[in-house]
Amino acid sequence: MRRLFWIGVGVAVTVVVYRRGRTIVRQYLPATIAERAEKAAHEAGERAGSAAHEFRATFAEARERREAELTAALLAEGQADPAATRAARASGARGSFAAGGPDVDDDEAELGYSF
């Protein structure tokens, strides 16, 4: 409980110091300099936001390419794409997955599973 109290006191002091500091800066700083500084800070924020957006897009593209590479490397020869398999299972089309599918032997159809 003490820690929470002191965190609250620290936040309150920080807010007061920040607001007082802004009023003092406004009093003694010419308006043009303050406007230039505000404009520069705004432009820097826009550049940082655009850089972050570009990084995110590039990262997502690289991640998707790498995932495709790993999936292709891990699939056995002739194995269906996992996305197609998931889609078929989700749609309820279980013809090739359940017993009696096109590539399942008769005795395996009786067992209900296939290797």
Automatic annotation (TrEMBL):
Residues 80-101 have a biased composition (Low complexity). Residues 103-115 have a biased composition (Acidic residues). It comes from the Bacteria. Residues 80-115 are annotated as: Disordered. This is Uncharacterized protein.
